[in-house]
Amino acid sequence: MVKRNGANRKKLRVVMLADESLVPTGDLKDYSEKQRELRKTEFDVRDAIEELGHDLVPIGVSDDLSTIRGAIDAHRPDIVFNLVEEFAGIGHFDQHVVSYLELCKQPYTGCNPRGLTLARDKAITKKILAYHGLKVPEFATFPQKRAVKRPEGLKFPLFVKSLTEEGSVGISSASVVVNDDKLRERVEYIHRTTNSTAVAEQFIDGREIYVGVMGNDRVTVLPAWELEMTKKDDDAPLIASDRAKWDPDYQRQVGLKTGPARITRKMQADLATVSKTIYRLLGMSGYARLDYRVTEDGEAYLLEANPNPQIAKDEDFALSAEHAKVPYPELIDQLIRFGVNYQPDRLVS
Prior knowledge:
The chain has 349 residues and is an alpha+beta fold. The protein has helices at 33-51, 65-75, 94-103, 113-120, 122-131, 180-194, 242-246, 248-254, 265-281, 316-323, 328-341, and strands at 2-4, 7-9, 13-19, 55-61, 79-83, 139-142, 158-162, 176-177, 198-202, 207-215, 219-221, 225-229, 256-260, 286-294, 300-307.
């Protein structure tokens, strides 16, 4: 048994699955600042699991399922801590990795395959939520190898991004377009750089607020967290771009910071209620971060649902949990327990 903070915990065998290039080896400080930004989740999770007293085996995943099968057979883990973000270089194939774990009857952390499938497709997410009367931006999709023709009812300005890519891939200030020529140019850019369908959605000007949700049947909503850029030009739109996500120099340049959202108790309660609803409508489990734009008049539009978001110590999800008095090792322990207790054969609609 492992004893921590006065509580007895069963010592578990944990296999951590991570993208092959991000498997935590050595010390994080030995990497460059940009490399640390990419690897910090894997290192932080590794350190927390070891602090909890569990046996940990990190395994790199690339394009071979036998790597996963071999790790399961060799180590017989109580839980797989799943940090895989792609398979064979394709981001939305992470859902198939989880499906494989379920076929192997192997407990794992994070979201189930159905939740990943629904949430990864930004158009399907919006269609489901709009059907249930929840606020989402108006949008249209633009598949590859088809003419870019904007529906008449879809008004500018529009925000153009990949239908399936995560982590702000392909997003910059040029993502906001104000005419059909710029729309066509940006859609073609998304096709060319991400090899995916593009989605153009109504640009919602407002505050960028994130809400963390975790659990399976019973869920916990974390305090709303806000992204701000204190040094950006006043006339520049607030955009969580690829550079804002991964470039420390750019983050300093625009004064990027996140912290507890300064909102009323009513708005906090309203966001918690709608976040629980969205989490369940999309069939998610484990943990997720929901990204909203909140307008001046207090209307919250769901932009994206992100199952298995980044959970490094200094990322929004973990910081919000810490603000709710859940220290980082305890957060990782809770995610492990959600995985151990999840029942894949029990679909809930």
